Amino acid sequence: MPVSPILQPVVALVLWSMVMWAWLYATRIPAATAAKAPMHPEMTSAEFNAVIPARVRWKADNYNHLMEQPTLFYAVALTLAVAGAGAGWNLWLAWGYVALRVIHSLVQSLSNVIMVRFSVFMIASVVLLTLAVRAAMAVF
User: Fold this and answer.
1) CA 88, CA 105: separation in Å to the nearest integer?
2) Alpha carbon separation from 136 to 17, 119, 131 (Å, rounded)
3) How many Å apart are CA 91 and CA 47, to the nearest integer?
4) What is the rounded CA–CA span in Å between residue 2 and residue 80?
């Protein structure tokens, strides 16, 4: 059985998520150590975040964001792959979504300019909605 090309952007976004995971720990552990942050079980995430710099928190926030809306992308892309509709425009849209999520990650992790980040997020959301409608057309 041939492999659907839409699986490439799926795997690329998973790998990007792992890059963000590594980046968050590469910055968070040294920041927590430098801040001498207490790490006891009763400590809330808000209390922990209060003692580390915002620039460090941004990476963790972005990693969490990559665990949210992209899960819908995975479902839609896998649906398109199974339906035999993982090429052409759907493939281009999938790569566009991945590129936008990478840009979103970089904006949030490096500068966190809210309006820029929100704009990129909205464009990515429209791309995802388009993919979802195209998946619906493929299966209904």
Assistant:
1) 26
2) 26, 26, 9
3) 43
4) 14
- pLDDT band, very low/low/confident/very high, at 140 (cuts 50, 70, 90): very high
Mean pLDDT for the chain? 96
Contact 76, 124 (CB under 8 A): no
Confidence (pTM): 0.95
Domain 7-139 has CATH 1.20.1540.10: no
In the block, tokens 């425009």 appear at: 89
Dihedral (CA of 71, 72, 75, 78) sign = negative
**Residue with structure tokens 């792959």?**
81
Cα diameter, the chain: 56
Q: Three-state DSSP class for 36?
A: coil
- Chain center to CA of 83: 24
Residue 2, judged by CB atoms within 10 A of its CB (0-12, 13-18, 19+), counts as exposed
pLDDT tens figures, 50-101: 999 999 999 999 999 999 999 999 999 999 999 999 999 999 999 999 999 9
- Among 88, 86, 118, 87, smallest CA distance to 103 is for 118
